[in-house]
């Protein structure tokens, strides 16, 4: 009983389809009559015939209502289209003169109007009756065909040949019925139910039956050979793809799936890679053509992804990549010329500002599915080629051809962001992988004895391919910019980044891994040519009127030209010569501001000085430790550090009137930094016997650095007064903060001779303590005095406290040196007289500061005096009472008492004198006193 159920379902389906066809014909007829009657009522009779115009509305109102209700019931409320129809036996009415005939809208306008109109809510009846029933019916038909075959097999009713023939005939019959219904389908059904069309579902079910019958004939029963089976499956797939032009994108997906899966269904002992990829390419191109005709986006994206997957699968077990590479190139050509082709370009936005937001909108515009699937379907197999052992073609050649083709396609279609960006990223990734980062790691491990296997030899061919790929990106990038810089400055700027950065990076990677570090003429001349081309492109675009819309693009090209010239300097020179020439090259770009107003020219000097700092950080000696002269000051460090510092100073002066404030600030800051660095490195070299090493500096050397930083803070403060600048203002405070940090951490801590045991020198006053404490303390005091009305009060207080701490440390350590001699480490202990001397010295400092504070009416000095006196009192009561004995203990307390009484009398005199005078408070000065 259950075996007959599929046959019953098929019969019921045919009866239902036949009834639906009759109902559709009746609805069409009634719709035409109602529409024509309404038209005649609105226009009136023609040629003075009153019969038509005088038709009573009441006479046909019920019929119209009934017909309209039936129409709305069948079309779910959609208004039927008004097409010209004529009643039988009635003359066609003429249009009234004051109502001109309306011309039909163009197809593009109709599509735009339909897209902008909000879609009506779909009723449950429509969803279940018009859509779900169609989908379920199509599935039932497909399963019915399968069950019929299964029933015949299990029952043994028919032979295999007859069963396969019937299955094929059943599939053809479904396709024929689908085409028959399509030609007589309900009006607007295609628009209303595009994804649930009865003809498309029937055709799809028939196609499944045909695929199953052909595969069974080959794979199960062996009735036909692989060649005939392949041809039949391909013809069926392409036939379904052709029918999809009539039945929609869903059927196209089925045909595409069948065409792409056909090679998997055919087993052969001698697979031919050329035949396979020619067939796959034809299938992909045919899908692109069909998609172009119908405007589909999903099916061609799937086709590109499937071809990329086929390429990856084929590369797993093959030594031949030529057919794969050609197939992928053909897919790129189909994407560029067929679909989306030129019609897929997004309109440029010439007035859009150059910003990340505008770039984000551009990245998300256009057919993203087509662009991204194409890019990944090309890039992933191309990268996989690099890891395969290929016999017919050098793998990097195949990779370079695919990446160049993808980049060229992105350049041809200016709206295609992702192919361009992914091609550039893939080229850079392949360069890093192919040049052997792993090999370099092996070299490192080999040098340490961890990796003892033989290292692979480097192939010079890779260098040539990388340089060729760099030239390709340069050419297509500049070509794109030349064509589109005026109408599409945003994407042209993206191409400027690629054309400027990618060739330089590829050439640099090639030089680092394959170049000759002494004199590499190949990389040197390539870099010189690259820089000249980029610089010439800037001049060409400037004369073509690219400014100001393409200003950022020209700046990027300028930066690329400088990077290329800098690479040439590294390939053709070395040592201190390279460092000086880089600074001179940047200064030459800066001086070009006198001839050209390009905003990027001063920033090139900033790049050059940053490059100099990078070289200094890489090798502070600039010429190598062995080649560095030991002569103090007059050695290679003087020009290597001094000339860039001097050029930075001249550059800061040259751009004093430049409109860009940030570049002025950057050059001023770099000039200050390089000047200080030049002096500091020369001092370190001289104080270490002509040797630069990484050891911790001594207190004397560190004191020179602290004095330099304090002096830099004062110089920047003076420059800020003459020409106000954030760099000068904040730079002076940063320098002062660094000096304060050095005081706390080094002078008073790590390098203090009390902790290190370092010799303080044999002279009583002119010794290490003078250089390490008194001179920096006086420098801090002078800087605080100079900054009292120019910088915030907390900063000035910190400077004054630093000076006071250094002065206090100098007095204290000098007392210890008087009693302990040249070496004053803590492990030598304390004598009683030494302990008493500290109290005397500290009280003397407190009294001295009090007198100075009274003389200059400086509240800060009086506060410092009070702090020192309090510290002394604590020391006398806590330390002297416990450690001193006899007369020293008595003298300590007696002296402290006299000093405290004197201080009290001093303050009483000051306060009493102030109380007898009229008190006038200055608005700008706070009240004084402790």
From TrEMBL:
TM region positions: 132-149, 161-181, 193-216, 228-248, 260-283, 295-315, 321-339, 368-386, 392-410, 422-451, 457-478, 490-516, 522-541, 553-570, 576-593, 600-618, 638-655, 667-683, 703-721, 733-751, 763-786, 793-815, 835-853, 860-878, 890-907
Keywords annotated in UniProt: Coiled coil, Membrane, Transmembrane, Transmembrane helix
Coiled coil regions in record: 17-44
Keyword Magnesium: no
Pfam families xref list: DUF2339
InterPro entries xref list: DUF2339_TM, UCP035905_mem
Keyword flag Transmembrane: yes
Highest taxon listed in the record's lineage: Bacteria
Name by which UniProt lists this protein: Membrane protein
